[in-house]
Amino acid sequence: MSTYVLMKILESSPDRYDRGIRFLTLGQLDEAYDRLTSHIRPGDRVLDIGCGTGALTLRALARGGVVTAMDINPAMMDVAKKKVGAYRAEIGEAAGDMVFLEMGVAEMDDLETGGYNVVMSGLCFSELTDDETAYALGHVHRILKNRGMLLIGDEVPPGGIFRRFFYMLVRIPLAALTYLVTQTTTGAIKNLESRVASANLEIESVRRHGIGGFMELIARKRD
Amino acid sequence: MISYILTWIVTRFVWLLPLPLPPRLVKIGNPGRSSPVLVTCNWRLTVRELSYRLRREDLYLLVANSRGINVWCAAAGGHFTHHDVISIIKTSGIENLVDHRTLVLPQLAATGIDPVYIKKKIGWKAVWGPVSARDIPGFLAAGKEATDRMRRVEFGLGRRMSVALGWAAQLSIPASLVFVFVNREAILPLNVLIFGMSCALFMAFPLYERFLGRPSRGWGTIAFGFEQGGVQLVLWGLYTAGVVIPAGIIGGETVLFFFHWILAGLVVTLFLTFDLAGSTPVYKSVEHEERSFTVVLNVEICRGTGICTEVCPRGCFDLDRVRRKIVFARPDDCEQCAACIVQCPFDALSFISDRGERILPETTRTYKLNLMGKRQVRAS
Ligand code: SF4
Ligand code: SF4
Hints:
Low-confidence stretches of chain A: 1-12, 181-185
Helix content of chain A: 40-55%
Number of helices of chain A: 8
Number of helices of chain B: 16
Shape of chain A: globular
Distance between the termini of chain A: 60 Å
Oligomer: heterodimer
Largest interface: A-B, 26 and 42 residues
Order of helices and strands of chain A: HHHEHEHEEHEHHEE
Distance between the termini of chain B: 49 Å
Bound molecules: iron/sulfur cluster
Strand content of chain A: 15-25%
Largest sheet of chain A: 7 strands, mixed
Strand content of chain B: 5-15%
Order of helices and strands of chain B: HEEHEHHEHEHHHHHHHEHEEHEEHH
């Protein structure tokens, strides 16, 4: 029985991922991503760290960005590629250039120094270890142009004991249910602001919403 | 030792769920600048076992992020790849601690990790360590050389006990919960039945092993899976004749007693033997529609590197040193783990579906189309 059950559990489920995440974040995610990507201007060179199924990638493309999307999961990226293909077929020549790279944050050494106007990441930092986060943020600083922007939408633990308690109350059953259905769940990243700041990036705005479990963060590289 | 045992017990109960430890660098003993660097998964039990088995060594152990899943399943399911290995090397600081650039990877990760990619990206050379943690000290003492025996998966007594208790616990927990409401008195005998049956089944494995690998002969019903040697019927029959009937007669029980316990025995038997072959690490599951996939060798392309013999956990290949070619000597032992396909540098090995379609090795590599992947979907 084991391989059968394990196969069902482990079968990476990119097709179900989008639905799972939307459910888990109670639908706040789409709005948050729209708001974050509204800062992208036509012609901007954009890096999407952990593009997954392409939620941010597609928005950046639609805003005229020239996007590099990276992820370690080729099956997830396939879903993103399909979406981009469909978008291109619809909009034709107007769609900007883009590339997909199968790589993890520890392989960011290859990316061009000062080559990007915008680095963005949705629900990826919360999946990284502390060391990986520090490593990635160091490279974000390196590859951003001066005044370039970092846009992060991710799960954070809410502030305050009461909020935290309420959050756990909602979050635990939701996460368990989502895990059972999609084998997808997300963790929360602690001290996101101070980590970004310690990578020498200046925080421009922070917006928490819902009961505080999700954060939109915008930071900029100083001149 | 104690934390190893405790973790072992806990993992029996959460057997099918990930149980992670934070990925990190673990120093074992007193490692120096030329000490070996080993990589493993971050399943709690594996890390605990390694810490125990390697307690007399001096080395660095890199616990990579395999999402809390064991090496083989994580690698086969695409949750433990070269990206995770690179990540732990780059972010753990190991590059500042040793002078060499050689990595020992667990052999069972060969279905998911591409050492060529690691070498190209960060310059670390990988060698395949043995299958079992128990053999690592011997492997290191022999100058990172594994014997043929170290390269094979085995289903020995300890492993069978682990599997037996693992499955029993998976059934025992929900069954006991239900019976709290239905009939509390039945909980104890029910658990004796579950654990006893599971242990009997897996302990008797050598007796029926030779039937497991065979293809279906088609005369059994689905429920009884005669292609698995009819072991279910034997087990159920022995239990009925040897336990229920004597117990019922001695206790002067009613017909209902016999009915209940014979039925319970049937349910437990079916649960435990549902995919008996797949429950072992040495046979491929027969519950997959893709079971008819086979590994084929294109002997023309093969250059006799011997890499496939090194990673095959079933010892299916022989190396013909004179002709510098591989011989696919024991195809019947193959459990379709795809390690050989993924690792062959010349794409000489690939899967062929029952309809004769060849799956490109690159496809197998990218999508982990091995015993757990969605092979059928990707056949094209
Ligand atoms: S790995 Fe490939 S080339 Fe090397 S011996 Fe095996 S089949 Fe031949
Ligand atoms: S021959 Fe079969 S068992 Fe051996 S490595 Fe290849 S797929 Fe795995």
